[in-house]
Amino acid sequence: MSAADERERRMKQARTLSFEVAGGSVSALLVRPSEASALLVLGHGAGAGMRHVFMEEMAGLLAGRGVATLRYQFPYMEAGRRYPNPQRILTATVRQAVEAAHQAAPDLPLFAGGKSMGGRMTSLAAADAPLAGVRGIVFLGFPLHGIGKPPGIERSEHLHQVDLPLLFVQGTRDRLANLDFLRPVVERLGSRATLHVVDGGDHSFKVLKRSGRTHEEVMAEVADAVAGWISSSQ
């Protein structure tokens, strides 16, 4: 069976869940391989939901490395709206997703994070109050600054209030995180922060053809970095 076929098989085994948030409920997908050693709560980016190809592919790759995932929708995405909810609603959703993950797999060590906005909302929630049971946070493209805006570090200031191991996976062509600004941020966070740089990757870790690497190779690198860090952080 090819790697793609194996990922598709795992996706078909995803368990659909839901949990309550302010004003209603949102859906979630649990992918738990039989050999799971940890569970990563994975929030989506601002412009695409939990079923986006990136989220699907990452969940499948992590499952193949023994990491279960719980992907979930933020309320605006669940309702089919275009613009994200206010930050207080997004961070409250992160907290409820963590609780739902604990209930779904109480035997697994818990980690949290997500793609771009999903990761940042996770750390903002953790800065406000500890996320029960979470052992570390994964950022798949931390959005340090907005597209077209001057690079800055204001979005990272809350990270100093997060007393957890942090993994930043960032591409060298990421327009939302100039590495000249992000590297010093990670260094100031000290030994609890790890930066994994994806050479040639953009905000979604896509690389140019002239890089000589395939999309599959790059995504495997990202999944290896996440799974390896989770293993070392338990």
Give the gist of this structure:
It is built from 7 helices and 8 strands; from the N terminus they run αβββαβααβαββαβα.
Explain the overall architecture.
It is a single chain. With 234 residues, the protein is α/β, with parallel strands linked by helices. The protein has a single domain (3-233), classed as Rossmann fold, CATH 3.40.50. Helices cover 36% and strands 22% of the residues. It has 7 helices and 8 strands. Helix 6 (179-189) links the parallel strand 7 and strand 8. Helix 2 (53-63) crosses helix 7 (215-233) and helix 4 packs across helix 5. It is globular. It starts with a helix and ends with a helix. The relative contact order is 0.13.
Give me the secondary-structure topology:
Blueprint: H1 3-12, E1 15-21, E2 24-31, E3 38-43, H2 53-63, E4 67-72, H3 75-78, H4 87-104, E5 110-115, H5 117-128, E6 134-140, E7 166-171, H6 179-189, E8 193-198, H7 215-233
Parallel strand pairs: 3-4, 3-5, 5-6, 6-7, 7-8
Antiparallel strand pairs: 1-2, 2-4
Helix pairs in contact: 1-2, 2-7, 4-5
**Which strand-content bin applies to the residues?**
15-25%
The level 1 CATH classification is Alpha Beta
User: How do the SSEs run, as a string of H and E?
Assistant: HEEEHEHHEHEEHEH
What would the principal axes of the Cα set say about the shape? globular
